[in-house]
Design a protein that fits this description.
Layout: E1 5-8, H1 12-21, E2 26-29, H2 35-40, E3 50-53, E4 63-66, E5 69-73, H3 78-83, H4 85-90, H5 92-99, H6 104-109, H7 112-117, H8 172-178, E6 182-185, E7 189-191, E8 213-218, E9 224-232, E10 243-252, E11 255-264, E12 271-272, H9 274-280, H10 287-297, H11 310-324
Parallel strand pairs: 1-3, 2-3
Antiparallel strand pairs: 4-5, 5-8, 6-7, 6-8, 9-10, 10-11, 11-12
Helix pairs in contact: 9-10, 10-11
Length: 327
Amino acid sequence: MKSFKHIDAASVEEAVSLLQESEGPAYVIAGGSDLLGCLKDNLWMEYPKAIVNLKTIPGLDTISVDEDGLHIGALVTLTKIAESETVKEFWPGLAEAARRTASPLLRNIGTIAGNICQENRCWYYRYPDKIGGRIDCVRKGGKRCLAVPGDHRYHSIFGAVNKCIAVNPSDTAPALIALDATIKTTKRTIPIDEFFSAGMGAQSTTLDRDEIVTEILVPRPAQEWTNAFRKIAFRKSIDFALVNCAAALTFADGKVTSARICLNGVHNNPRRCVESEAALIGKPLNEATAQEAGELAVAEAKPLLQNGFKVPMAKTIVIDTLMDCVK
């Protein structure tokens, strides 16, 4: 790695000031499982002059439940979420998503905010600078997405965003979207549906350079409800998802009154299955309605030559996740 300043922040306010006052590009670090790899491989067009450590800030690593729902500090580890009895009881989809992320060692250091803010894992974008020099894909200032004519086995099946067909790699993102979470930052409160933005160059979120996630709020509906998460990967642990899916539904008199379904690993941003959601409203949740929802979820798929296998995989995981929600 190149040299940079490493600064321990004592408060959120100090961390923001350090980002704003840095003489060059500056980034924050929490668990560091994504950032350190980016530094070692010199992925970015601008190497940071400073890294601001958030782990020294008190109060960002707690889980609590209030009347408005579940409050998760930005520095809460994935292990803590996966093992929380409260999360497992009321938000099992989120607990399962955290449990299925990476390996035990990485879950012990990886944070919830880091997991939703991580960058894509496309092998062209992530190609190490030390092995023959950086590959300038479209996210690094190049003119085209090299995966389109190259190896795109695990890339988007729903087209490109700004020519790029890399997919969002987060496991917790679809769970939080299904649960209609809200992201609180040092500047604003962002509905989870507006948080991800692959159209902003290399980054995967709408965050400004000097903006820090501080908390995630997951509401608790007043109605009868259920939620679930599933993931398909080559190995149950360690690997990023080929496809994952989360769903959250409310019921009244045995029929669905609201539904939120989200696929990930299939597009640049986590993908809400809005047509599938609408098809479930007012109907009982059973094999027939789940089948219809699964078919609608992939109706607009545009797979490339090598990744067509992900279409039936996405359809099936939607069906299976919904059936996990049957009361």
